[in-house]
Structure formats: C-alpha cells, structure tokens
C-alpha cells in the first residue's frame, strides 16, 4: 500500500510540475522535455522523464566552445522484477558545448552536475540506500541536432554517507530531449 501511495504522490507532483513548466515555455528555447532509459550494474531498469530549463548565460566563450547549462526536474522509476522505487530529482547541470563551424546545427557537448532527489522507498533489489534523500551525481556526453538532444551518461545516487548503510546505485542511461 505504501508503494502505491508513494507512486501516486510522486506522479501527481511530476504532472503538476510538467504542466507548470509547459505554460512557462511560450518562447522558443525556453525549455526541453526528455525521456530516458537506463540500467544499473545489477540490472535494475531505470525510466526517467524530465523538464529542463536553460541557464541563458554563457561563460568562457572561445573559438572552441562555451560553458552554460540547465536546471532539470525529473521523475524516475527504478524497477527490478516488480520491486519498484519512484523518485523526483532536481539538478543544476553544467554543459560545455563545442563549436563546429562547418556544422552549425550539430553541437557536441559534455555535461556534469550534482543535484538532490527524493525516493519513496530506499530498498530495491537487495540494496539499502538508507534514506529517502539522495544526491544525484551525473556526467555525460551528447549532441544537439536542431531541436533534438541525444545523450549518454552515467548517474550515481547515494546519500553521501549521511546515513548507513549507503549502498548507492550506479546507472548508465540514454536520453532523448526535444527543445521548445
């Protein structure tokens, strides 16, 4: 019963935020929506949807590229044979985009970020993450092609030893996003 209640609450929060963010993005480039799938080292399936809002600021601009980023709010489902954990996460992510003068609509990039997550059940597939609060660390590579964004990354969730045991979870994930 507790998992169903957690799923309903997390789903409601995610839907409300997605609807709110959709109303904000009236101008092009104001936000992105994404979907992703990944797996942990011990075969936990990861499903993720998110909304990203760009920083609209660039640093260290040069002929090589520039540093910018985005804020991401996501809803995540971790599942292994019906053992399911739901969560929401918020992360600022820094992105270094490379300039390719011959291909103006193809922009390769690298990214990294650290954010916070709340999960409804901190036991999954024999792992004990010990708390509902988790840090979400990420690194990745990707390419923007017109309004599409394709990336592959590594994510790590743990409570940074704030509570023991801290089994953590490592995820490799592919994501596709559409910029509005």
What is the number of E strands?
Answer: 10
Q: Helical amount among residues, as a percent range?
A: 10-25%
Please tell me the overall pLDDT: 88
Shape annotation: elongated
Question: What percent strand?
Answer: over 45%
Secondary-structure element sequence? HEEEEEEEEEE
* Major β-sheet profile: 8 strands, antiparallel, barrel
Rg of Cα set:
17 Å
What strand order characterises the main sheet? Answer: 1-2-3-4-5-8-9-10
Give the terminus-to-terminus CA distance. Answer: 38 Å
Describe this structure in words.
The chain is mainly beta. Helices cover 13% and strands 58% of the residues. A hairpin with a 2-residue loop joins strand 6 and strand 7 (127-128). The longest helix is centred in the N-terminal third of the chain and has 23 residues, at 2-24.
Outline:
With about 180 residues, the protein is mainly beta. The protein has one helix and ten strands.
Write the layout of secondary structure elements.
Blueprint: H1 2-24, E1 32-40, E2 45-54, E3 65-80, E4 83-98, E5 106-119, E6 123-124, E7 127-128, E8 133-145, E9 148-158, E10 169-179
Antiparallel strand pairs: 1-2, 1-10, 2-3, 3-4, 4-5, 5-8, 6-7, 8-9, 9-10
